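Repro:
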Amino acid sequence: MFSLKDLDIQTSRADLADLPDKKLLINTINAHSYNTAQKDESLALALSQGDVLIPDGYSVVWACRWLKAKSRPVERIAGGDLFDFEMKRIEERSRDLMEKEEGRKPLRVMFMGSSEKVLSLIMERAAKDFPHLEVVTYSPPYKPEFSEEDDKAILEAINGAYPDLLWIGMTAPKQEKWAFTHWGELNIDCHVGTIGAVFDFYAGTVKRAPRWMQDHGLEWLHRLCSNPRRLWRRYIIGNVLFLWNILHELK
């Protein structure tokens, strides 16, 4: 059984500043991914054996306290929080390097995933928000599973770009499993974050919940109301299932 109480989870946003500057796989965990990992061994392995796991959901924060878990986060760290922190940090680093070294090229951030439309909007916004960064993108084929040729093309694109920060934005759990499975083939030396919906949030193609809802653990409700036909099972049935699974961990 995939056990929340045994996981190493980041406890606060301040912890992000202490992450070493090397190749790291950073995943998020929320009620949905926790539920999925109960039956998906590949996802359970990716989440438990990745380098960094952040609590993207108040349900996870509360459950860790209730379970008296190994890690007890004091706050939610959403994928968007990780994105903001990493992008601001690498922007400052790139700016400082460019000011110190005349002719220095900007550091490179790569977005792998989503559609060409979303990626173009990301590039447009990032050029304004982070003027000292070079942004490159790759849109993989839209299909349930990649072929060997697809995987090879993705790996060649990433390794060829050799980014200083890599974001992977595909549907969960596809993104987590892909990154973990191909981790040894990624010849890069940077932080890699699997952040899914953040691509759409940043591009503006999906509206994120108001801050007050985020701060009170209600972002799931905003997403449910925005797309009930697609998400009702995930949030209504999924939230009940999460409580059921946590109760089993108490035994």
